[in-house]
Design brief:
This protein has 141 residues and is of the alpha+beta class. The chain has five helices and five strands. The longest helix has 17 residues, at 17-33.
Length: 141
């Protein structure tokens, strides 16, 4: 069994690209060391992340994130156990969509492709569904 947790948070108002890269670099390094996988989305100053791994380690990472000054209003959306990892090859998959990218590719095109990706999950759990529902909410406003 694998433990999964989905949370969302607001980025600090003056977050920079360097801050985001710093988060990703630390996440990749620490997640690999702790056998944690997952996905991080950043859009419109909001983070959405799903973490997978051993329960104790996932909860420790989430508590660390909740204390990180680059995040505020950290809320756990869902958590629980599942049979297997969804992001088993990614220590931290990441996608940031800027407002210009959203305008360039069109909201509908992005949403369709994003939701198609979400449907590739072979055994969606309540936590995975919460992750994708929140992602859709973030994008559609």
């Amino acid at each position: 069994m694998v433990y999964e947790l989905t949370y969302c948070s607001l980025a600090k108002p003056n977050i920079t690209q360097d801050d985001i890269y710093g988060i990703l670099e630390a996440a990749g390094r620490n997640n690999k060391k702790n056998s944690i996988t997952g996905c991080l989305l950043f859009y419109n100053h909001e983070f959405l992340q799903i973490l997978e791994g051993e329960e104790k380690m996932v909860k420790a990472v989430q508590k660390k994130i909740a204390k990180d000054s680059r995040h505020s209003n950290v809320r756990i959306l869902s958590e629980g156990e599942k049979e297997e990892r969804t992001f088993d090859h990614w220590t931290m998959a990441f996608k940031e969509l800027s407002e210009q990218e959203a305008k360039d590719i069109g909201d509908k095109f992005f949403e369709d492709n994003f939701l198609t990706f979400s449907e590739l999950v072979s055994k969606p759990t309540r936590t995975i569904r919460s992750f994708w529902q929140r992602a859709q909410y973030m994008i559609n406003g």
